[in-house]
Specification:
CATH class of one domain: Alpha Beta
Strand content: 15-25%
Oligomer: single chain
Number of strands: 10
Strand order of the largest sheet: 7-6-10-8-9
Number of helices: 8
CATH architecture of one domain: Roll
Largest sheet: 5 strands, mixed
Length: about 250
């Protein structure tokens, strides 16, 4: 019979507790280090490898050349290459729906032309075999943006080309002396019930000559420039009192 070379070592209660604490720190330290900052860094690296931006909202405001989405009152021609009897001109109704000949009604508001083409193909799939469909906009709402608040010429402007926030402010007459151009708000309608808003520090953009965060406008966007603090309280200050501080009388 082989005798064990190991034997129990009796330790005082205080030393036993200290040994357990040291053992827990030695074994748990590396695990904690891997599951903490390293895990977070791995997630960020994975997102960067996939080319995903840090914020979906930021990506939405930075996207360039978005496709036009159908609006109420728009009209378009639908042409079937091999079934001309289904050719028709369709108007988007006030509720966002259209009615197709022989295919019924469906909601298309907000869809782009490629999305609308696929919708029409699916609608006629039970009638025609692999329909070849061409959709062309006929009449649509002209793209625009609205500039409001402390700009030189507030109003509604045509969005004729790719335009950024800073460029739109310049078109609207620039900032007034009462504007707070460090907190310019860009409102963008995401759906019928949801409007997205984001603050832009245009003052910092211009001072640093860095327009990398300058947002590209979409049709229907609204720019709002608020008042600065001085202009808000200026009308409540008596003119005589204000003059005393600005040009005190010499006694």
């Amino acid at each position: 019979m082989v005798k064990s070379r190991f034997r129990m070592i009796r330790m005082p209660p205080g030393r036993r507790l200290l040994a357990l604490v040291v053992l827990a720190l030695v074994m748990g330290g590396p695990c904690a280090a891997q599951s903490g900052p390293a895990g977070t860094s791995g997630n960020n690296d994975a997102a960067n490898d996939k080319g995903q931006p840090p914020s979906a909202a930021t990506a939405g405001f930075q996207e360039r050349n978005p496709r036009y989405g159908l609006r109420k009152g728009d009209s378009f021609d639908v042409d079937f290459a091999f079934s001309p009897e289904f050719n028709q001109t369709v108007v988007v109704q006030p509720d966002g729906y259209i009615t197709l000949r022989g295919a019924g009604s469906m909601r298309v508001e907000g869809q782009t032309i490629p999305e609308l083409t696929e919708t029409i193909k699916k609608a006629y799939a039970s009638i025609l075999h692999n329909p070849v469909v061409t959709v062309a906009l006929k009449d649509f709402e002209k793209p625009y943006f609205v500039a409001a608040g402390q700009v030189g010429k507030p109003g509604k402007y045509d969005l004729r080309s790719d335009l950024t926030l800073v460029e739109a402010v310049a078109i609207a007459g620039g900032f007034t002396e009462n504007s707070k151009h460090s907190q310019v708000v860009l409102f963008r309608r995401v759906s019928d019930q949801l409007v997205e808003a984001r603050l832009f520090n245009v003052k910092q953009m211009l001072q640093t000559r860095d327009l990398s965060e300058d947002a590209h406008l979409r049709p229907g966007d609204m720019i709002y420039v608020p008042k600065n603090t001085i202009s808000k309280i200026q009308r409540y200050l008596p003119t005589t009192s204000l003059g005393t501080y600005l040009a005190p009388t010499q006694f």
